[in-house]
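Re: your question from the hallway

Yes, I did run it. Sequences:
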Amino acid sequence: MPRAWPVFVYWLSLYRRTWRATIVISVANPVLFLLGIGVGLGHLVNHGHAATLGGVSYSAFFAPGLLAASAMQTGYIEGAGRVFAAAGWAGSYRAAATTPLEPGEIMAGHMLYMGFRVLSSCAVFVAVMAIFGVSAGWWVLATLPAALITGLAFAIPAAAWVITQRSMARLQTLFRFLLMPMYMFSGTFFALGQLPGGLRLLASALPLAQGVALCRSLSLGRASLPAVAGHSAYLLALILAGILIARVTYRRRLHP
Amino acid sequence: MEETPIVVARGLTKIYRSRDGAPAFRAVDGIDFSFGRGEAFGFLGPNGAGKSSTMRMLAAISPASGGSLEVLGMDPALDGPRIRARIGVVPQDDCLDRELSVRENILVYGRYFGLRRDLIRERLGELLAFAQLEEKADAQVEVLSGGMRRRLTIARSLINRPEILLLDEPTTGLDPQARHILWDRLYRLKQDGVTLIITTHYMDEAEQLCDRLAVMDGGRIVAEGSPRALIEAHVTREVLELRFSVDAHAAVAERLRDRRLGERVELLPDRVVVYAHDGEAALAQVHAAQLSPITALVRRATLEDVFLKLTGRSLID
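Structure:
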């Protein structure tokens, strides 16, 4: 899609004005969490319950979980908030729609940028993980594509839905009642094995739990091919479904 | 216009699907029109008349629900991108990127047309000169005044050298001075042979800018012609406006109608309007009838009167 490229470049040119601030956040977030929760809380956890974490330190357990959760967060912000503004008050989509670009191209250019944002912010996170030495050597690099598809599995379905919305209220409701609980119950902070049977099954079916499991197994160097394929297929299916729906919802909104 | 029209619409209809429980809405209800190259055509009507929906269909960003439409010899349903490559659109709410500079806004937009960067830079100078924004080239859009933003939107819409320029309510929300600057820019475009299609609910704007007008109401075209022809066909040359105390208006209108004053007597909430070929003579008759209005004004008939006659309502509520 070469015609989508200028749309991607447009979003980049906006990002150029704020990238320094976002880099600081991308660095500060994992550093503070890893120091505060990983090392501090981990000190308590490691003494009693190392076995439930599969025999690894709490930091090594927690860091890839947080990576997946922050990929989700970046994905949702870029896919929901940004798309809502672009389709509404900011007018970016409406301006682009008056040019030869088709709705699908405007969508593709923006999704490319969502991928860039998830990838770049997760790359910083992964670098911090490498410096802290919480991953199994070079396996840390494999967590980056895993984090990318985790982030996009939220960004793209969010974009497909948000573009149908005229008021901000439901975006906040979704964040509060879907994303925040998911953040808590997807095995970011504790092993899902600790939950009772039914709840464990439910929690492990959550999209973020899939991303957490994928990132964690890779980071610890304990990934098995079937598990990686299963988690990836789940996340890629969400991305694909998001794209297919967005093609329809974008056209409806941009060519009413 | 003898040559082939640049736009032809027959029975053009737009129905919006029902949404959130609201019933389906027929915004444009089977309208016919055509424009020739170089013409300035206006859609005049109040909010909700179907002007903007018509404009969106012309801009190939909204599919028609019925009827036929041809723009530059092409069908918007099949050739949307090719049509959009040859027209310019000035939306009512600018849709500029406030975080970017004037220059960047034009550059981004030009890239959407697939124009090369050096070509855009080449055109940028003349567009900024046209919009009288040369000194603001590197200013962020955020700090521009409303009039400057609107001129930038027009400059931006010209980046692809459009053959047709669509302007939706171009001067709504601008102060009088900014409006006159903008009108001057639009005259220049017209002189350069650009076909202008304008929507407005300001009668003075329609009179100033348009060679030909379609008066729209409730999704239909209720009259069409040059501003002068519309006035001649639908109202008298002069108009007498009378104001009495508010509760007296109905009775006064009744008395004037009984006396067969002028061609027609219209009762409005705040005044009584008499359509007469000779306004002063009509006023003399009012005085002869022992009526003493608080104010009396004789003026030439305008498009506002045409609209009032055709729809029974005022353009701006």
